[in-house]
Amino acid sequence: MKNYLSLALAATLVCGLALFSAFNSPEHEKAESTEFVSSVMQMWGTSRMHTLEVLDAMPEEKFTYKPTDESKTFASQMVHIGYTLKYFAQGMIKGEQVAYAEPDVSTMSKADIRKLVEEGFDTYTAAIKELKPEDLAVEMPLGPDYKITRQQSIIFAHDHVTNHRAKANLYIRMNGIDPPTYKF
To answer: What would the pLDDT profile of 111-140 be if each residue is shown by its tens digit?
Structure first.
């Protein structure tokens, strides 16, 4: 019985030490532990899921639909979402110099576009998770004459996705298809 108690005490100490180490490691100091980024990560997950539902709701033969000559096609709205998330991750979160070069949507299938959107969300999410709390206040360029903080750029990217997803959602309705229920 005494051996079991000693073993239980030793196991408790080892587990306690492991938990203490995990929560005091440099990795735990990443921005993910801040209240702001924690709340954003939940919204990004929902935004990703809902964006893919919108993409999936439109039949591939309707991906070239656009309501006016000046409008983007449905496929272009989705490609724009996926590509700009990668672009924002590189430029506004990581601070890399990147040229904007959106892919040619006319060469892409529905599966290709879905993959691009998934990769865009994954890349952006990973970039946010790498930030340290002090990184959020660093100003980054948004165009040639304007700067915003990384925290503001995260909000901007979310708003940008919402804007283009809403347009794509409207295209679905304009084709007589019931769009997915909005999620937040």
So the answer is: 999 999 999 999 999 999 988 899 999 999
Where are the alpha helices (H) located in 24-62, listed in sequence order?
35-57
CATH fit for domain 34-174, picks 1.20.120.450, 1.10.700.10, 1.10.260.40, 3.40.50.970? 1.20.120.450
Backbone CA torsion sign across 25, 27, 31, 37: negative
Is 59 in contact with 119 (CB distance < 8 Å)? no
Phi-psi region of 97 (alpha: psi -120 to 50; beta: other; left: phi over 0): beta
The pTM of the full predicted model, rounded to 2 decimals, is 0.81
Helix (H) or strand (E) holding 140: strand 139-141
CA distance linking residue 16 with residue 11, whole number of Å: 8
Hey, what are 152's tokens? 């503001």
List C-alpha distances in Å: 75 to 2, 40, 114, 133: 69, 26, 10, 36
Cα torsion through 55, 88, 40, 125, rounded to 10: 70
